Amino acid sequence: MNKTISYNLADTVLMKKPHACKVNEWEILRLGADIRLKCMGCGHIVMMPRSKFDHNLKKVLTKANDPVNEKNEFFVPKENIVQPNFNQDNN
Question: What InterPro entries has UniProt attached to this entry (predicted)?
C-alpha cells in the first residue's frame, strides 16, 4: 500500500510511536534526504532518513504557522527556521 502524505517545513506531524517523553507530536525542522524533527513535548531534536520518516508517519496534525501551534512552548515559526544559503560568489 502506497501512502502519499504531503508535508512541508514547520508542519507538526504525528508519528506511529511516541518519544521517550510520551509525546507523539513532532515539528519538521529540515527536509532533504534526512529529516530533522523536534519533539513538541521535550524539545529533543532527532534526524532520520526520509524513508524511515515516511514509514513512521501517521498524519499531519497542523500546517506551518497554524495559530494552534503558537500555544506549544517548543514551536519554532517557519520564518525563524534557518535555511542554508547556497548562493556563493567565487571571486
Answer: DUF951
For domain 1-66, give its CATH number from 2.40.10, 1.10.720, 2.40.160, 2.30.30.
Answer: 2.40.10
Cβ–Cβ under 8 Å, residues 37 and 28: yes
The number of residues making up the chain comes to 91
**Interatomic CA distance for residues 27 and 39, integer angstroms:** 7
pLDDT for 1 beyond 50: no
pLDDT value of residue 3: 64
pTM: 0.73
On whether the CB atoms of residues 12 and 61 are closer than 8 A, the answer is yes
How, if at all, do strands 34-39 and 45-49 pair?
Answer: antiparallel
Query: What whole-number distance in Å separates Cα of residue 52 and Cα of residue 26?
Result: 14
